[in-house]
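Listing S7. Sequence submitted for prediction.
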Amino acid sequence: MTDSKADFNPFGKLTYLVIDDFENFRLSMRQMLRSCGADKIELVSNANQAIQYCTYNHVDVVLCDFNLGEGKNGQHILEDLRYKKLLKRSSLFLMVTAETSKEMVMGAREYQPDAYLTKPINRAVLEKRLSALISQRNILMPINREIDRENYPEAISLCLQILPRQPRYKTWLMKTLGDLYFQLGDLTHALKIYDEVLAQRELSWARLGRCKILLANRSFDQAVDGLRELIAKHPDYMEAYDLLAEGFERQGRPTQAQQVLEKAIEHSPNALLRQKQLAELAGSNQDLETSSEAWRRTVELGTHSIHDNSQHYLALGQTLSDLSEGDLEEDGTERAKEALAVLKKMEKRFEGEEGISLRSQIVQCRVYAGQGKEKQAGKILESLRPELEGTANLDARTGLDYAKTLFRLGHETDAKQLLREMSERFSDDPDTLQKIENLLDEPVGFRQKIKARTLNRDGIKAFESGNLQDAAEIFSKALEIVPDHAALNLNLVQVLMKEHDNNPGNAELLERCQSCLNQLSGLPEQHRQHRRYIALQRKLKGLME
């Protein structure tokens, strides 16, 4: 062979970044890398220096300690670099750590480091691990370059060319092909890749890919069954939990989706985005206990994370406010105190962010009202009113939160007017319209809302069983809690009309129907129940003539 010595030194062509808070370890790593043939090596002691360096310099290999003292750890750095796209796909990130706890490994693994190196490290281990990774990096570089450029068709073409020449990288190439076809929306070719792999060997990533395609093709039952099986065999495979939760949601089974995320969080508690997803899902399932705990963890995990957000603090404050409302026992008082503390911390942490102080005070107002401190609540509301007069500039979230507060403090007319104006302004936004409807229907506290919903379900069961008098009584009880609830009022109208069919001489039944419909006279046209309301109004008119 006539190759020069430089060609046998893959280390020498690359740039390195060593991140560790101990100077002796940084110097030791530099010495080992130099003895392997590396030349361009930068040493930094903390996350801020590392992220700043990567912002202005291309790095081929990052060797990062997990524990870096106060502030961000290695997981946060990897999360940050991935989020800001400061690492190319061809760059290698090695997590170096003396800690091997499951919690740490699972948390870091969510952001896919290329390898783990366990301290203490010697030169032989370092050279062996890095040589293999660099060799793979160099062979697959053309593909990764095209993926970084988002030129997926060219990346696919290169994968297909390299496959027969590099059988040792077949797994990586097939997985990459499946991902690329999926990203391009070519589900047929993606499925073919996964089936080909699975025909030879049961690999979890191929099974996951297949289930992802089943979900995309709306084969929800098959996808859910496949993912349950995958998790049973690989209980630490976090992506499978996320996909299974999505599958359950798409089946219309949000409770099961929540349970799956709870299980995932038992295995990997440090994934902020999954905690946030659980918090939102539990909140929509009216499981405010679970929601508040997940928001609490989201806020804690956000302390050093790129995903830190004022909305997490606000959501925790809102959830604690809902839980503490009307609960004057020790638990309720503690939750109210925590809500106020979280909101104050948010104002300080995100000082200068537009609308933060305003949103905070809107929620604080509800917290005080929920604890029977009407005077303090009223004082805050009066100070807010000038800033909130007119809804032209109010974003949807602030407007909804303000309407909720107006309801809680007994300003029903103002709240309804605000929501009517908002339903016109956001007529093209189905999500906001749905939230407006929910608030118009149930402008009450969490516990009352649950009670009214339970009564509604019981009333429907009684009606379906033919027990008209029981149904009418149950719906009437529910309407004592939420008198403006559109579906409940219309449910009662239907029951009373059915009773009238059996007893045509009873004019009082029709009067009660009219009373329910009068209650809904201000129902916005955008409300889901509006067409039903108009239809029943016409039917009642016919019965009364």
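Caption to Listing S7: primary sequence and predicted structure tokens for the chain studied. The longest strand covers residues 92-97. The chain has a mean pLDDT of 92.
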